[in-house]
Amino acid sequence: MNQPETIDPDMMVDEIVRRWPATIRVMIRNRMLCIGCPIGIFHTVADACHAHRVDLESFSQELLEAISSDPLANAPSAFLGDGVAAL
Q1: Average pLDDT, rounded, for the chain
Q2: How far is CA 76 from CA 15, 43, 48, in A?
């Protein structure tokens, strides 16, 4: 999958940090405690922004910038496809 052009506010936080590890820095910089949070698998980007009082539009832009610098940005998602993860 190619790098996204936008961040879907309904995308789960957990998938974002797993697919694009460079986004972890964005979470930390915004004082979001999403990394390793058990709710991360259920929390969307919009949920997390609301819970942490972070502007969704600017946060999404920061995520996109981090993704564009991430060498793993084009790695396949474990959450897409036929459900079988390639090793």
Answers
A1: 82
A2: 11, 21, 24
Tell me the one-letter amino acid at 31.
R
Q: pLDDT tens digits for 29-42?
A: 999 988 878 887 89
Q: What is the enclosing helix (H) or strand (E) of 61?
A: helix 56-68
Question: 1 Cβ partners below 8 Å, 6+ apart?
Answer: 74, 76, 77, 80
Angle between helices 45-52 and 56-68 (to 10 degrees): 120
Other Cβ atoms within 10 Å of 62 Cβ, number? 19
What would the 3-class secondary structure string for 19-52 be? HCCCHHHHHHHCCCCCCCCHHHHCCEHHHHHHHH
- DSSP symbol at 68: H
Q: What is the DSSP letter of 6?
A: S
